[in-house]
Amino acid sequence: MRLVFTKPVRNRIVEIRNYLAENTSFEQADLTISKLLDKADSLLEHPLRGIPEPALANLGKGYRSLITGRYKIVYYVSGDEIRITDLFDTKQHSSRMRW
Question: What residues contact 75, with CB distance under 8 A and at least 6 apart?
């Protein structure tokens, strides 16, 4: 298995880190990103540990999600890949989500 972060997710990680660094501290930003990446890495051991995403069921890819802190990681498993397709602050408006 390998973990694949889509380009929008990689960009979102940078956005989250920059926002937290500006509004809290560099240490808090790095800690939050580290926790997010650790949670994503945990999928390599247990790829189906996340709960199914009913709002995405119609896409037929078996989307699942994990919550860590106030962030949601959305992903699906395809062959030997775990594709992380979205990562967002659960307090943001749903119209900003990227599927």
Answer: 40, 43, 50, 63, 64, 65, 66, 82, 83, 84, 85
* pLDDT tens by residue, 29-68: 999 999 999 999 999 999 999 999 998 999 999 999 999 9
Planar angle of CA 9, 44, 66, nearest 5 degrees? 55
Give the sheet arrangement for strand 81-89, strand by strand: 2-5, 81-89, 71-78, 64-68, 51-52
CATH fold label, 2-92:
YaeB-like fold (3.30.2310)
Question: How long, in residues, is the chain?
Answer: 99
C-alpha distances out from residue 65 to 4, 22, 27, 68, 77, Å: 15, 28, 26, 10, 11
Record the pTM: 0.88
Q: How far, CA to CA in Å, does 87 sit from each of 6, 95?
A: 10, 14
